[in-house]
Amino acid sequence: MFSEDIRQEFEVSLNEAGERLDKALSLLYPELSRSFFQKLIKEGQILVNELPRKANYCVVPGDILTVSIPKAQEITILPENIPLDILYEDEDVLVVNKPKGMVVHPSAGHYSGTLVNAVMYHCKDSLSGINGEIRPGIVHRIDMDTTGSLIVCKHDHAHVKIAEQIKEHSVTRRYLGITRGIVRLDEGVVDAPIGRHPSERKRMAANVRNGKPAVTHYRVLQRFRNHTFMEFSLETGRTHQIRVHMASIGHPLLGDSVYGNGKNPWKLQGQTLHAAVIGFRHPADGRYVEVEAPLPGYFEELLKKNL
Asked: How is residue 83 annotated by DSSP?
């Protein structure tokens, strides 16, 4: 949702043609969920050629979508004075180094201690409202046990500009991780669509029916006895993408209890994955900004061991 009522019209292009109405809208607004649009459709906030349609209506080229998005409701999540490791900040955006174990935004079981609680305290009233009252400022996310760089938008214009770059895959994202086993190739690409696991709904899986395109580039940085230190760069940003792709080729991330067995002698908290570098065109003037998050201490200590 936005900081004011928004009414926009779109003509369906070949990119959206053939998709369900709710899916087509999520393509037009990648920062908003399909469930959000399903709610708007039921409320009559979405029209197709000036007529209401159901969420399962398949759009065709030339359809005119009229989208009404109500302004954001009053924020109910409370600011908390939680220290932030700030990598970059100006009046438009904030880039933070998220620690391990911190959830990005409030959800069931995590209504305090999140990154949102922390940035609300730090930024006061300066956060975008596009993602609604639960996710102010949040334009993308990383998993709870993944550390590293994350962009926070301070107003709606910045949010829209960064979201556009994420949609067109022009944001630079490089991750560092330690995988189980010895990866033989010095570099390679995993090109395998990712979707919801057919029987375990809390997991994602590669090469499933109706999976979305997903491409991960990898490069070996160092080989140990039983593990490999690697760099990953993403062409796409699917849920758990690196974790799923590496598990799919037999090298799950060290400590990953969802896509690997999680067993290790170092009592790790989740997967060993760090969002090291993020680069984007600044929403105000288009200049390229690249920010690097230093490796967390636990990760550096692991690299000193004979893995």
From this structure: -
The b-or-e profile of 3-36 (16+ CB within 10 A means b, else e) is eeeeeeebebeeebeebbbbbbbbebbebbebeb
285 labelled catalytic = no
Q: Where would I find the H helices in 126-192?
A: 156-167
Strand, helix or coil for residue 294: coil
Report how far residue 121's alpha carbon sits from residue 183's, in angstroms, rounded to the nearest whole number: 43
- With beta carbons less than 8 A apart as the criterion, state whether 175 and 219 touch: no
Q: Which of 22, 63, 143, 256 is catalytic?
A: 143
What does the pLDDT look like over 209-266, one tens digit per residue? 889 999 999 999 999 999 999 999 999 989 999 999 999 999 999 999 999 988 888 9
Q: For residue 84, give the 3-state DSSP assignment.
A: coil
Contact 127, 154 (CB under 8 A): yes
Between the CA of residue 266 and those of 99, 125, 297, 300, 305, what are the distances in Å? 18, 41, 13, 13, 10
Kindly write down the DSSP assignment for every residue of 222-250, as one continuous string.
EE-SSEEEEEEEESS--TTHHHHHHHHTT
Burial, 129: exposed, middle or buried (Cβ in 10 Å; 0-12, 13-18, 19+)? buried
Tell me the whole-structure pTM to 2 decimals.
Answer: 0.75
DSSP line for 96-112: EEEPTT--SS-BTTBSS
